[in-house]
Specification:
The complex is a heterodimer. Chain A is mainly α. In chain A, about 75% of the residues lie in helices and about 0% in strands. In chain B, about 70% of the residues lie in helices and about 0% in strands. The chains are: A mainly alpha, B mainly alpha. The interface between A and B is large, with 39 and 35 residues.
Chain lengths: ~500, ~70
């Protein structure tokens, strides 16, 4: 992509405007709650846009467009059946309980519901995952600035750190969420411009279908046969829709943290639910370009298929639009980086530092620790980013690690909320057994992660139920506000919990 | 088992998905209204989140029916 003149102006203006806008929100940060939960003031529409900004990264553009080039519209399953039902479930079942519990992190909730061991295992896993992902995101961002603007990679990394770090360190979640709103708008404007231009070029939707279907008859079918190695329909339903997707939308710290900063329980639920509407449109930004690239150039092969998106940008965009699409690309990346930074700092401050290193310190102390940790993670990402180039398997390894934990995590969270008889030992054994099952199936038998997720989820549920029934029930006082049956039918309890979540007694 | 599974028509995927979406819509309407509207700023009809859920799941049904 040649960035010149007006394109360069758009990109530079965008890169300056985002931190300037974000830093404005530092004046609202006075306490730890202001920093990590935006002072519990976020309205539903900000939450919804921030969730999608966090969810969509530059890797989605590349990977999804490449997937659509290979397998067609089935790639959209990750945005539709692999997201929407789980988001409804999260909004209607999980989010209200997290919010009522007044927690800052998902491991903190699991610690309250089960025990400290469950909290620590989950916190270490998520903390390590988010820290490693930061390095990968930073490298991708540096690479893009290097490739398209010609800036040396080391300088590109420092620019990324400066842009993201300056408002994430000072403004916390409020700055992250508000800048995400702007970034999402930029993403949609750039993405829709590319897709509309592409459709115009191939002769509209019917032109696209006519160009692809003769050679690829399954490319406009959402479900692919069971012999498809990547997206067999049974795996998409039972592995993705039933386990991996709910695990992501109901238990992922960076996603859930936005709802915990909601100004009311209704805003928390509405924010998650409203996010499902832009989520349904994401295939226009990331799947359609892959199909357009296939229609215009069916000769990409092997690893080059993952370059479908850059190919389209390079060969389709006229001068003037390149800067806009590049800004959209950067917006996708930066909105993921800032959220990951903020969530990593929250996890390490609340679940590790506050619990094991310095207990019962002042609110100001934890606010400062949160800021220092965010700064440390920025430095860590700069140092760790080049390592991800030398070991490209790191990102895949981290994703694998996450998929191994996701099924069991979702199983114990679901049972913890829905079944009051689940005990702390049931939860702990369910988590450990589930991880053992998924590790065995993945590393021992080399199963597809879609099937591994399903069976580790099922195994974890069974272990949790059996051990819970064999151990002493938890006292009701411990479960109040954390379990479905103890909240749903009692308006008085709901009111007490709302006051507690709002900081009252 | 994989041989038996491969005999299941692709069409069943569509049926399972659509039935799942419908089941989810029913599930959302079984949530008590007091729980859904809890802490809503007012009682306007549009704030009933069950309607939002029905619309987005309804769109999914259409998409999976078409494709």
């Amino acid at each position: 992509m040649d960035i010149q003149g007006i394109d360069l102006f758009i990109v530079i203006a965008y890169l300056i405007a985002i931190p300037v806008f974000g830093i404005y929100f530092r004046k609202y940060v006075k306490t730890e709650e202001d920093y990590f939960l935006a002072g519990k003031m976020l309205p539903w529409w900000v939450i919804s846009m921030s969730i999608i900004g966090t969810n969509i990264g530059a890797y989605d553009y590349m990977g999804s467009a490449g997937g659509a080039y290979r397998f067609g519209i089935a790639q959209a399953n990750y945005e539709w059946i692999g997201a929407i039902p789980a988001m409804v479930l999260s909004a209607m079942l999980f989010v209200p309980y997290y919010w009522k519990a007044g927690v800052y992190t998902v491991p903190e909730f699991l610690g309250k519901r089960y025990n400290m061991a469950v909290r620590v295992i989950e916190a270490i896993l998520w903390g390590a995952f988010l820290a490693c992902v930061l390095g990968v995101f930073f490298w991708a961002s540096g690479l893009m600035l290097n490739e398209y603007l010609g800036i040396p990679i080391e300088v590109s990394l420092l620019i990324t750190a400066l842009i993201v770090g300056i408002y994430t360190i000072t403004g916390g979640l409020a700055a992250v969420a508000m800048t995400d709103v702007v970034q999402l708008l930029v993403m949609f404007i750039g993405g829709v411009a590319l897709s509309v231009l592409g459709l115009w070029t191939v002769g509209g939707w019917s032109g696209l279908v006519n160009a692809i279907t003769p050679e690829h008859p399954h490319h406009f079918k959402l479900f692919l046969p069971l012999d498809n190695p990547t997206m067999p329909w049974l795996g998409m339903i039972f592995g993705l829709a039933f386990v991996l997707s709910p695990a992501w939308w109901c238990c992922h710290q960076a996603i859930i943290q936005r709802t915990l900063g909601a100004r009311s329980e209704w805003d928390a639920k509405a924010g998650m639910l409203m996010a499902s509407f832009p989520k349904m449109l994401i295939p226009i930004l990331v799947v359609l370009p892959g199909l357009l690239a296939l229609a215009l150039n069916p000769d990409l092969a092997g690893a080059d298929m993952d370059k479908a998106f850059p190919w389209l940008i390079k060969n389709l965009l006229p001068a003037g639009l390149a800067g806009l699409v590049f800004a959209a690309f950067m917006a996708a990346l930066i909105s993921s980086v800032d959220s990951t930074l903020n969530s990593a700092a929250t996890l390490w401050t609340r679940d590790i530092y506050q619990r094991f290193i310095v207990k019962n310190a002042s609110d100001k102390h934890y606010l400062n620790v949160g800021r220092i940790l965010t700064f440390v993670f920025v430095l860590w990402a700069i140092v760790f980013a080049p390592v991800t180039k030398k070991f490209p398997g790191i990102y895949v390894a981290m994703q694998t690690l996450l998929s191994i934990f996701q099924g069991p995590t979702f199983a114990i969270t679901l049972l913890g909320i829905y079944w009051r008889r689940a005990t702390q030992w049931g939860g702990l054994s369910g988590l450990i057994a589930g991880v053992a099952i998924s590790s065995t199936l993945y590393f021992g038998f080399h199963w597809s992660f879609l099937y591994v997720a399903w069976w580790s989820f099922a195994g974890s549920m069974i272990f949790n139920v059996i051990v819970s029934l064999l151990t002493k029930p938890e006292p009701l006082e411990k479960l109040e506000g954390l379990v479905y049956g103890l909240v749903m039918k009692d308006k008085e309890i709901q009111d007490i919990l709302s006051r507690r979540a709002n900081g009252g007694q | 088992m994989s041989q038996w599974l491969s005999g299941i028509p692709l069409f069943w995927g569509k049926i399972i998905a659509v039935v799942g979406f419908i089941g989810m819509i029913i599930w959302t309407w079984l949530r008590p209204k007091a729980f859904i509207m809890h802490e809503a700023p007012d009682t306007n009809r549009w704030r009933d989140l069950r309607i939002w859920a029905t619309v987005c799941l309804g769109i999914q049904i259409i998409l999976y029916f078409i494709f």
